């Protein structure tokens, strides 16, 4: 049951003019995100499921380049996709490499118009639906399952404990300061790379900065031993922890663990206040410093001050690590026309690149940072638009003493 005041809020989901909405949620089919509850600050919370390529499927077929995609493949893929649709897992689902490649080709064709602009056209559910259909983007009509959500998760858990489905609670269209409650494409890109390079990350200890909903950390924990997923804000951290719990069946069997912790780049130290729920114990800080070899961050470079604070935190943490560490950063170059430049620019991206260059130039006798871009030619394990504005950077942080 939903009380009247809450129902009114739910019926009146308006997107504030200062709200940001991730394309990940905008393009997901309605049946894949159910509205499950309102969070502590009254924002509607949705539950989305994303299918991952399973271990079994990984070695199944040869690796193919997207331009080698044939019509036959696309035909096969369509059949596979129909099957997935029947199971209720559509645009975000993948079965095997061949299908994934074909899907990618289809996806890219569908996404670009004659000028190369992004244009999303939805495939009708049935062939017969095509006649006279309006192909414009569907509106999101969330389906409210229940208030609270617990019962839904229990029912869903019974139904879907598949090792290749990740379930994530998130909100949609938040103010910028709550952007971490949505999933961003950079999180998928980083997760893709982790799945692709799983041998590199086996049993490691990793730290994610600005983990948001926790999706990248959860995927990392299917391979790694311990992942410290960090962010700021009780509400966001609670949502992240809930996602970790929801996906225990994915990580537990591999022995991986996600620890949700507060780590604010605007503060000089770890939060150790015993009163704070997501604070660190001395043992956890010691474990982080002794064992961390991987640091992750997805789509956290959109404000210059925060970018500076991020790199300051990165510098401080890597200085205190006992071992060499590799840092992986994903970023989406969001282009805007600015009057100041009278051109299309991405100032946040430019600032990120400048800061990255500064890091590579550090010569302080203690650390050496080697920066290189990662080519995005690896395969997709999750379906999303791997657009050219997405980038992945690798930084090797080595102590000099
Ligand atoms: C665009 S979201 C990306 C979230 C997630 N990595 C993803 O890609 O889905 C940026 C993240 O940076 C986090 N963030 C912003 N300021 C922060 C700060 N001062 N300290 C730690 N995290 C911060 C936000 O809370 C948010 O989770």
From TrEMBL:
Highest taxon in the source lineage: Eukaryota
Pfam families: Methyltransf_16
Gene3D superfamilies xref list: Vaccinia Virus protein VP39 (3.40.50.150)
GO cellular component, one term: nucleolus
Statement: the UniProt record of this protein carries the keyword Acetylation: no
Gene Ontology biological process terms from the UniProt entry: methylation
Record has Cell inner membrane as a keyword: no
InterPro entries the record matches: Methyltransf_16, METTL22, SAM-dependent_MTases_sf
Chief localization: nucleus
GO MF assignments: heat shock protein binding; protein-lysine N-methyltransferase activity
Keywords, alphabetical: Methyltransferase, Nucleus, Phosphoprotein, S-adenosyl-L-methionine, Transferase
Compartments, record wording: Nucleus
Signal peptide: none
Function summary: Protein N-lysine methyltransferase.
Subunit structure: Interacts with members of the heat shock protein 90 and 70 families; these proteins probably are methylation substrates.
Family annotation (PANTHER family): METHYLTRANSFERASE-LIKE PROTEIN 22, METHYLTRANSFERASE-RELATED
Protein family per UniProt: Belongs to the methyltransferase superfamily. METTL22 family.
Record's protein name: Methyltransferase-like protein 22
Species in which this protein is naturally found: Sphenodon punctatus
């Amino acid at each position: 049951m939903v009380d009247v005041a809450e129902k009114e809020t739910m019926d009146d989901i308006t997107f504030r003019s200062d709200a940001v909405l991730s394309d990940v949620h905008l393009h997901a089919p309605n049946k894949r995100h159910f509205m499950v509850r309102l969070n502590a600050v009254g924002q509607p919370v949705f539950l989305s499921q994303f299918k991952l390529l399973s271990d079994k499927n990984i070695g199944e077929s040869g690796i193919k380049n997207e331009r080698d995609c044939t019509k036959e493949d696309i035909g096969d893929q369509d059949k596979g996709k129909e099957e997935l649709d029947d199971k209720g897992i559509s645009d975000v689902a993948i079965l095997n490499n061949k299908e994934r490649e074909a899907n990618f080709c289809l996806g890219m064709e569908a996404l670009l118009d004659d000028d190369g602009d992004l244009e999303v056209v939805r495939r009708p559910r049935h062939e017969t639906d095509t006649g006279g259909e309006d192909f414009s983007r569907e509106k999101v009509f969330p389906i409210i399952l229940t208030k609270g959500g617990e019962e839904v998760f229990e029912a869903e858990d019974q139904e879907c404990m598949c090792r290749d489905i990740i379930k994530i609670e998130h909100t949609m269209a938040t103010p910028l300061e709550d952007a971490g409650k949505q999933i961003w494409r950079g999180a998928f890109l980083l997760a893709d790379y982790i799945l692709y390079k799983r041998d590199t990350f086996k049993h490691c200890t990793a730290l994610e900065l600005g983990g948001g909903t926790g999706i990248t950390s959860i995927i990392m924990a299917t391979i790694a031993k311990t992942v410290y997923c960090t962010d700021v804000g009780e509400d966001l951290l609670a949502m992240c922890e809930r996602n970790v719990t929801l996906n225990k069946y994915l990580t537990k069997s591999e022995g991986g663990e996600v620890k949700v912790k507060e780590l604010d780049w605007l503060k000089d130290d770890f939060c150790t206040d015993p009163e704070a729920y997501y604070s660190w114990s001395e043992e956890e800080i010691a474990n982080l410093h002794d064992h961390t070899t991987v640091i992750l961050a997805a789509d956290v470079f959109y404000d210059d001050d925060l970018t500076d604070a991020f790199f300051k935190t990165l510098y401080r943490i890597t200085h205190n690590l006992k071992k060499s560490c590799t840092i992986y950063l994903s970023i989406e170059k969001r282009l805007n026309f600015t009057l100041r430049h009278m051109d299309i620019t991405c100032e946040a991206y430019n600032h990120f690149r400048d800061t990255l260059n500064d890091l590579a130039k550090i010569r302080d006798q203690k650390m050496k940072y080697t920066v290189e871009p990662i080519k995005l030619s690896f395969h997709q394990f999750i379906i999303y638009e791997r657009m050219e504005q997405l980038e992945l950077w690798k930084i090797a942080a080595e102590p000099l003493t």
